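Bench notes, afternoon.
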Amino acid sequence: MEEELILTPDTLITSKTDLKGKITYCNKDFLHYAKFQEYELIHKPHNIIRHPDMPRSVFKLLWDYIQNKKEIFAFVKNRNKEGNFYWVFANITPSFDVNNQIIGYYSVRRKPNPKAITMMIDIYAQMLETEKSQGMEGGLKMLEELSKKFNKPYNQIIFDLQKDI
């Protein structure tokens, strides 16, 4: 049975990837929670820690944002090497060269607001069910409907949920 690891308030999980999402850097907090050794992560796809409870459409939205030179915020459930999980509040941004070309991606994750996670568990479960019957388009449509319901862009909803800590 998987156990939940709760991030401490001072945790800052940091990583960098190349354009294809392969890890080029990870800090000690990343290694601590992911339970991998650095050599096991470098040049591996970042989705090595993706938990199966995460809807694919969330990552589609994430990639769409950062490939369009925008930052994104998200609540993400990760799975570590031992099969346990931990939730993070993630901020992912593109990194640029001097010509404003994207050369990689940078992510900082911290302890999420527990109230937001309670809400996101339900939303992600509904999105997973929708993805089974309607594919990723169905999941993305649910995210659009969430924005309409709150009358805010996706990033603002996620950021506001985190602030309510």
